[in-house]
């Protein structure tokens, strides 16, 4: 994962609750790879970034939700430079 000083080529990834505690970090900037051949404008998906960041377990667990720019999204949504991606585990409490 390359680190860039250009925020327009990155996605901000945020972890919450148990995920944050398990991984030991809460926010990270992730460099987006250029589209292959310049023809594919679709960015990576939350599922691809989950694996790229080596989040555990390897496959996203059931119940973990994703949000892009503070709106719930699907695991196969396309991300763009400048987006904020949040992984939200189930939260219990009373």
Can you give a write-up of this model?
The chain is built from 2 helices and 5 strands, in the order βαβαβββ. It has a domain at 7-25 and 56-94: Ubiquitin-like (UB roll). The radius of gyration is 13 Å and the shape is globular. The longest helix has 7 residues, at 17-23. The model has no long low-confidence stretch (mean pLDDT 84). It is of the alpha+beta class and 94 residues long.
The CATH H-level homologous superfamily of the domain at 7-25 and 56-94: Beta-grasp domain
> So, CATH architecture of the domain at 7-25 and 56-94?
Roll
- Annotation, overall tally of beta strands: 5
CATH topology of the domain at 7-25 and 56-94: Ubiquitin-like (UB roll)
Overall mean pLDDT stands at 84
**Stretches with pLDDT under 50, minimum 5 residues:** none
Terminal Cα separation, in Å?
Answer: 39 Å
Q: With helices defined by DSSP (H or I, 4 residues minimum), what is the helix count?
A: 2
Structural class: alpha+beta
Query: Roughly how many Å is the radius of gyration?
Result: 13 Å
Class of the domain at 7-25 and 56-94 in CATH? Alpha Beta
Summarize the main sheet. 5 strands, mixed
Strand neighbour order, sheet with most strands: 2-1-5-3-4
Helix content: 10-25%
Which shape, going by the Cα principal axes? globular
Order of helices and strands: EHEHEEE
Beta-strand residue percentage: 15-25%
Protein name: Molybdopterin synthase sulfur carrier subunit
């Amino acid at each position: 994962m390359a680190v860039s000083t250009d925020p327009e080529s990155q996605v901000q990834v945020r972890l919450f609750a148990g995920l944050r505690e398990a991984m030991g970090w809460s926010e990270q900037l992730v460099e987006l790879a250029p589209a292959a051949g310049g023809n594919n404008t679709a960015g990576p998906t939350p599922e691809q970034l989950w694996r790229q960041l080596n989040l555990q377990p390897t496959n996203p667990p059931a119940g973990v939700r994703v949000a892009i720019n503070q709106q719930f999204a699907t695991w196969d949504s396309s991300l763009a430079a400048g987006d904020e991606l949040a992984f939200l585990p189930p939260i219990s409490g009373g």
